[in-house]
Specification:
disordered C terminus
Amino acid sequence: MTTSVKPGPRERLLLTAQELTYAQGVGVGVDALLKGAGVARRSLYEHFGGKDGLIAEVLRRSTAEDVVRYRATMDAAGADPRARLLAVVERLGRIAAEPDFHGCRYLAADLALTDPEHPGHEVTRAYRHTVHGLFADEFTALGHARPGFAADQLLLLVDGLLAAGATRPDSEPAAAARDLAEHIIDAGLARQGAAPGASGSVAP
């Protein structure tokens, strides 16, 4: 006979905060977080030092999970860098079309956390740096003329796609984002003299 182990106060706070801050924003009240997690106020301060520490840890956990999802999405698309990059845009387009989509957690947090010294900003900056690196690596493998700049463009495109999905559900941001992503990819290949759609990679 197996018995399930109930998560401790720290884990319950993280799970509750991860859910409520996405649905309601990082401005959700401490009382709502404590009630949802079923923990005493003391637990918040013992484990996180307060709400700011909890928010930062939630963002840290979410970024780690999302980076894993980015990698998995690209790996599932195969070895061609172009296909890997477009797979990310397509997956985000599907997510943005879901009825319970509330936008980009990280962009929302950066806008809501008005204190520039809030620890959450360091987490979101690190996350974007990591994702930028993932994109730049693919553009480099593709033979793109300006891989770093193209990664900047794709990050901007992703922000726009997610923002449009949350604020203009009657639009079709996924289709527009796919076309723009192809333009970012192929424009750099044209400068290099490669044919659009070619991976620029050499099989081992």
